């Protein structure tokens, strides 16, 4: 019986780490301490693939009711999105490209004379890139990473370049491989923290957020 429990535990751990994600969820609340309409702003360094979680931390549902209240998400480009969000619930929007540089999260409660006006500014430290398919490679390491990170490509690639940047955009690691179907990055010399991994293949790039213990 003990052997069966141990086998189940090992299987559970393997399943937990079989699908590794390097994306980040960014929580952005509707109530950030001011209901007078003054603009609250926050700036986040992001990469394509990150997810913004717009959260209702008020004790009632925020929605759109004529003459009562509004709830809107306004991107820097594109159409305004009208939302209904229950207390402690949220809506999520993935960052799929670098065209939108901010979202304004608005809730106007006319009857209570309260107006929540919040803006999340998005910055991309690595600049504008041309991305290749996320499904073209995978990671065999867990996230956060300890000493090394192995990147496995579905097919052999030529002229692979791996660059690692810190939160300020400074390059802290680089590695080039002429032809390979996998690459191993030795990260033992790096401090713990958040990094951006940029993978260059055939003049196309992919950027992932990497956590280092």
Any overview of this molecule?
The chain is mainly beta. The chain has two domains: 25-123, Immunoglobulin-like; 134-212, Immunoglobulin-like (Sandwich). The protein is built from one helix and 13 strands. A five-stranded mixed β-sheet has the order 2-8-7-4-5, with no helix packed on it. A hairpin with a 2-residue loop joins β12 (193-201) and β13. It is elongated and about 65 Å long. The protein starts with a helix and ends with a strand.
Helical fraction: under 10%
Pick out the low-confidence regions.
6-21
Mean pLDDT across the residues is 82
Give the number of DSSP strands.
13
Number of helices: 1
Within the CATH hierarchy, at the fold level, what is the topology of the largest domain? Immunoglobulin-like
Shape: elongated
CATH class call of the largest domain: Mainly Beta
Order of helices and strands: HEEEEEEEEEEEEE
Main β-sheet, spatial strand arrangement:
2-8-7-4-5
Task: Decide which structural class fits the backbone.
Answer: mainly beta
Radius of gyration: 21 Å
